[in-house]
Design a protein that fits this description.
By secondary structure, the protein is α+β, with helices and mostly antiparallel strands. This is CYTH-like domain-containing protein.
């Protein structure tokens, strides 16, 4: 009998911040300074988010096409500011995930999984790897919003839900300690996520037109 191949689980934990407290991290001039800091190339990201009458959103699932590639993020805990996700990038896996929530979902990405476009915007992303593993990003969207995140990722082979929760809980604790240690880099204030800011911006735009 052939062994069962388990799909790797990509776990992502992130904590948002409203903006950097310094003009750039490149100088690494705070106290204490990062143990190491490596800048990544600035990226332009084009996102299209899909849903159907907010059914996926209400189930804690986000499906998007990022620069032409499909992704699904499944919330495993936290909230809109302090989030824990499992990420799926395989179209068949995304179709199965959507199909568990929405009947008659499309079987492949070419049919948008039977979903409808709900948001579309472009992001300019600056990113750094601090202390060799923490990814700090600053995102500036084309509708005038800015938000940042500190992220950690882990890949596991066939973990149980209990194992996922344990690992993501540990990752979240490490991010919290990291941000407290380097508090000089992150401005205080309540961050607003991209989609929330996008819909607020679209509502303001519609109000101005009426």
């Amino acid at each position: 009998m052939s062994p069962v191949l388990l799909r790797p689980s990509i776990l992502e934990v992130e904590r948002k911040f409203c903006r950097l407290a310094v003009a750039t991290l490149a100088q690494n001039s705070g106290t204490p300074p990062f143990q190491s800091l490596r800048g990544l190339p600035t990226r332009t990201i084009h996102d299209i988010y899909f849903d159907k009458a907010d059914v996926l959103y209400n189930a804690g699932i986000w499906v998007r096409r990022r620069n032409g590639a499909w992704e699904a993020k499944i919330r495993k805990g936290g909230d809109l500011t302090n989030s824990r996700f499992e990420e799926i990038t395989d179209p068949e896996g995304i179709a199965a995930c959507v199909g568990r929530i929405i009947a008659r979902a499309g079987r492949g990405g070419d049919k948008d999984f039977g979903l409808e476009k709900m948001a579309e915007f472009t992001t300019t992303r600056e990113a750094w790897i601090a202390d060799r593993e923490f990814c700090i990003v600053r995102d500036r969207m084309d509708f005038g919003h800015e938000v940042g995140e500190v992220e950690l990722q882990a890949e596991m082979e066939g973990p149980t839900e209990t194992e996922k929760r344990r690992v993501m809980g540990e990752m979240d604790e490490r991010i919290e300690a990291f941000m407290q240690k380097y508090a000089w880099a992150f401005a205080p204030g309540k961050p607003v996520g991209k989609l929330v800011a996008y819909f607020e911006a679209m509502e303001r735009k519609a109000t101005c037109r009426s």
